[in-house]
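seq:
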Amino acid sequence: MILVSSCLAGNPVRYNGTSCLNDRIQKLIDENKAIPVCPELLGGFVTPREPAEILGGDGFDVISDKAKVMERSGNDVTELYISGAKKTLALAKEMNSTYVVLKEYSPSCGSKKIYNGKFIGEKRAGVGVTTALLEMNGIKVISEQELEELLD
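struct:
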């Protein structure tokens, strides 16, 4: 079973209450090959919510307590991101997921790039908190772009 970001399944769970529907992901769900998950909602967030970015590193640094996830207003939400990542990992293990498809650029889900922590819309190399925890536990994380390549 594949876990996929809920926003890619068309659920309006992004910080601003929108989705990023991906038809390929919706097809996998319709075929009972994938289950949607939102690490941020599992961590205790609601929709909509304030945007957040990782400051001082990436998801691996957050897990090792060397970086923080901060909202634009300065509120530290690191623990909520870690909680959501742990719950997503538990679900991935329960479903025997060999890989997970998560939304690129998210402070939870980014698998290649995340926002740079300055809230100016710029991205940099790095992974989100959930991606880091999943990868540390041997679960491959790919973005929606890589899924398109995989399925073609």
